[in-house]
Amino acid sequence: PASYALLDSGSSFLIGPAVGMGIYAAEVGATCFTTDPTGLHTAVNCLDSDVGFDTAMIDCETPLLSLDFIPYDTSGEDEPSPNKNKKKPLVYSLEKDDLLVLVETFTELPSGIEQNIEYCMMRIVGSPTAQGYVLGVPFLNKYYAAFDFDNGRIGLAPATQHSDDSCPEDVFYEAPQISTAGATKQASVSTFSPNKTTSGASATLI
């Protein structure tokens, strides 16, 4: 279903409504768990939207369906999006390598021999209260984001790996002054040109 999305480099996971994330987790055969404040994990039904899940585990050899995000215009029908004129919609896909984290544990067998067990944790969380999606590190590792603050736009393009390049058009954005507890602070944010990316490709503005 259509929903809003927030880009957040401070989140290690993709967080979304329990309904959507739960359907995806169940479809790929994951086992879902909730975690209480003491750290105790309890297995739950991935499709239980009233509970949601904090962790989804899966066999590392299991093939995964891609998790796709499709942006759409929110400005209203009177202002058609340039994306509507294209034959194919923009699709930002996350694949198996983007969604799984390998977890290794050692278990002592009755014979006294330690056995190395590998399994994978999915980088998704199903929240029973979320109304939209938080696209965290799994998304931003794959797609470079360029923020055009002046025009309220975001550019996205496939990111390169291990690149330290920066854009010559980088600008320093001066945020408005914010008054906090009688003290005035100036917030500064480094942003990038929406027409350049470290991948060398033009970002798509949405």
Automatic annotation (TrEMBL):
Q: Where does this protein come from, organism-wise?
A: Proboscia inermis
The record's InterPro entries line, in alphabetical order, gives: Aspartic_peptidase_A1, PEPTIDASE_A1, Peptidase_aspartic_dom_sf
Q: Give residue ranges for domain Peptidase A1.
A: 1-157
UniProt similarity note: Belongs to the peptidase A1 family.
- GO terms classed as biological process: proteolysis
Q: Which GO terms describe its molecular function?
A: aspartic-type endopeptidase activity
The protein here is known as Peptidase A1 domain-containing protein
**Pfam families from the UniProt entry:** Asp (PF00026)
